[in-house]
Amino acid sequence: SLDRPTGIEFATDLSLKFVYIMEVKENSPAQLSPTPVEVGDQLVAVNGDECIGQAFGDVATLLGEKPAQSLRFRFFRGSKQELLNAVGREDYVPTVAKVKSIQQDKTEEAFEIAAGANLRDSLIENGVEVYNMAQGRFTNCNGKQLCGTC
Q1: 55-112, pLDDT tens digit by residue?
Q2: Model confidence at 128, in pLDDT bands (50, 70, 90)?
Q3: Are the CB atoms for 15 and 93 separated by under 8 Å?
Q4: Cα angle vertex 128, ends 126, 129, to 5°?
Q5: Radius of gyration in angstroms for the set of CA atoms belonging to the chain, rounded to a whole number
Q6: Which of 65, 49, 58, 71 is nearest to 19 (CA)?
Q7: Exposed e or buried b for every residue in 18-41, given b needs 16+ CB within 10 A?
Q8: ∠ CA(133), CA(105), CA(134), 5° rounding?
Q9: The three-state (H, E, C) secondary structure of the chain, written as one string
Q10: Distance between CA atoms of residues 55 and 140, nearest Å
Q11: What are 102's strand-pairing partners?
Q12: Which pLDDT tens digit goes with each residue over 21-54?
């Protein structure tokens, strides 16, 4: 059980799931806990509610409930894959995404990009024309998704 503020900064993998400890603040309840909390520990449960593989927003909701009370955590020390193996799950999120682009002339381009990468930038890096040339390049919004041509 840790008093609030706990002194823990959480992060997630690229899927925005699988919450882990990114930082433990100096002299915080987390650092001074009789059971040490370490950077890299995987968050397994909050106040008895399992949160393995839950979206970060759902975990944030669990963390925000009953703000006047201490938080009870359960952590796993190891990698995400080791955690999934330990609990008998295989829902590991890949770190690579496969992309297939079909151009107007019906040619296909297939390649892999890092999961979570900017798709537009990755398409351009792989030689895929992202602009609707009927609109012309004068509508280029520099990747801000405002011109509607990519």
Answers
A1: 888 999 999 888 888 899 999 999 888 888 888 877 655 567 778 888 778 888 788 8
A2: confident
A3: yes
A4: 145
A5: 21
A6: 58
A7: bbbbeebeeebbbeebeeebeeeb
A8: 15
A9: CECCCCCEEEECCCCCCCCEEEEECCCCHHHHCCCCCCCCCEEEEECCEECCCCCHHHHHHHHHCCCCCCECEEEECCCHHHHHHHCCCCCCCCCEEEEEEECCCCCEEEEEEECCCCHHHHHHHCCCCCCCCCCCHHHCCCCCCCCCCC
A10: 34
A11: 108
A12: 989 999 999 898 888 889 999 999 999 999 998 8
The two three-digit tokens of residue 85, written as one number? 């193996």
Q: Among 95, 150, 98, 92, which residue's Cα sits nearest to residue 124?
A: 150
pTM comes to 0.58
Write out the two tokens for 3. 């008093």
Tokens 């002194």 sit on residue: 7
